[in-house]
Amino acid sequence: MMTTKRTLILLGRTLLSTFLIILFLFSFELIESFNHTNYDYTRFFQKLGKVTIAFFLLFSAFFATNEWLRIKNKTQKPFPYFLYAIGTPVLLSVVMCGVRHYTSFLGRDDIHLLYIETIAYVIIIMFLLAAIHYLKYNFKTKNSTSKKIAWKTKSMYKKVAIYALVLTFLYMIYTVIFYIYHGGVGLNYLNLEFLFFMGKEYVFNFCIAFLCWHLVVLFYSYLETKVSILGSLIITTLGIFVIMELLINMYFFLKLLMYTDYDIVIKNFNFIYLITGVGDRSVFVIICTLCYQFLYFNETRSTEQKALKAAIGKQTEKYESLRRQLSPHFLFNNINVLTALIEENPQKAVRFSESLGNIYRHFLRQEDEDIVSLQSALLFSKDYLELLKYRYEEAFQYVLPKTVASHQYIIPLALQQVIENTIKHNEVSAEKPLQITIEIQDDYISIQNTKQLKATIENTKGTGIENIQKRYAFLTEKEVVIQDEAASFTIKLPLLNMENA
Prior knowledge:
Helix content is about 70%, strand content about 5%. It is of the alpha+beta class and about 500 residues long. The strands form two sheets. Strands 2-4-5-7-6 form a five-stranded mixed sheet, with helices on one face. A two-stranded antiparallel ribbon has the order 1-3.
């Protein structure tokens, strides 16, 4: 939802972007005016006024569309995001060019090429803006997985080559339109010689794009853990731009030396001007660098997601393994009780087995849950405690909490495991009655029993308590508290709520 504050922020960004682009155009035109003695500044400022209005409308369209995409949560997938973020201002620029064409009398046959070039520049500017915002929305945190990615693989080089082919193809289309519009060639000059020249240019620009990828990987291998994502983006883009400007201009400088007299080259070749001058090929280098950073980030994120899914899969498998231990553990402990009861009182053993069957069905329902409400767990525990009470009669006593908060949760069957362990390890008789007290203490549920260990205790590895501890470790940072004292043994299980569970 758009608020007044958010609207003012977007308006401020629109004004700032318009100011920066007009400042760039003004600076560029100012440099050009030094080469003309009778430069018409009045005409230039008239043009600048119209351009300012046009860019204000274009930037308004971009930021409004970008805000709509952000509100609709459509900023994760690159293709639809760039389609809308770039498409809306480009469509507006097409409309403005159409209005200008039908309301002016320029009298030029090639005016449509001027419009195509204008729209191409709009696409470039909006692409750069969209690139910055896409990275802002999707890559806010640092990662370390990318160091493990094998960038030099056939599949990776295939993607890099496809990027290079497409970017170079788009740049060559722009170059042909530029040459035709500025009189470099006419349509009647599109012959075999020109196509051969364009083929060489295509290969040269393809190599530039391919080199940009390797420089992106090189920069990020050093910057990834040292600066933020935005810092890496800026440093990498500027760094590759400077490196490629030096390499490209060095190439042309050496090429001139091969085919031209040395003195003439040194006299007329302004190397500083070429390095500092931002031409179409420089823009091509910047776009290649940005696109390859998208590829780098997407591959990194894809690898992180696969690693995360694998880790979750392993953790889920471990958790399921722990849950699978519950059923045999429950049966083993209670079959021991049933066996002892058969020897003492066969009729009572029959009723115990029937009640145990009903409780086991409830057990199976809870077994599949990750967490259960404390109310439900205590109701089940009461049924189980009543079953034990029926078995041991007055030799077994228990106390349950009277009130329980509805927002409190616990891992399933934890209470039953603690009760089972209590019966397993302690003597229960009329001479030594066993008492279990269950109560809530702050953020824990405490299960305390009188300590009266059996004279002969079967060999055990403490699987029940260990299982509880490991299952809790999956859901909370709170630890299971164990207090082993002379007269009592207490286990405190953390209580969960929907937020920390």
